[in-house]
Amino acid sequence: MRIYLACTVRGSRAGVVAARVIAERLRALGHETLTSHLLVDDVERAEGAVTEGEVYERDRRWLDECHALVAEASGSSYGVGFEVGYVTGRAAATGQRVFVLYDAARRDQVSRLVSGFSTAHGATCAYESLDQVEAFIDRHFGPAVESVP
Questions:
Q1: Is residue 146 assigned to a domain?
Q2: Which helix (H) or strand (E) holds 26?
Q3: How many domains does the chain have?
Q4: 81-94, pLDDT tens digit by residue?
Q5: How far is CA 99 from the centre of its chain?
Q6: Helix (H, G, I), strand (E, B) or coil at 87
């Protein structure tokens, strides 16, 4: 499957370690992560050669093409919220799925839209450990999960 991994780039990078675990686990399970370049420490420099308009067009195209969106939402980010809303709003028609994870210790700092996220087209995980992150990914993307066309 093609997975769009949403994570905070310009806001708090509190969830970047978990996002790296998500990306590695998805890769180990044979999935393609379209946005793994956002997980590098110097992401601002790496993205600096791309204009804001180009980022919008590229990322919107990836959002349209992905089978699922996985969002690490522990940091404050308008971009992650936009991405989650964009795919969730279309999921009934497209068959895409949306999964939102956040650090349970940051529950009071994340949007209540994140902690309350609920949809028939995905799931939410308030994790307390990286082992729980891996288990969540395995449950939703492991070999027993039927691939989305």
A1: no
A2: helix 16-28
A3: 1
A4: 999 999 999 999 99
A5: 7
A6: helix
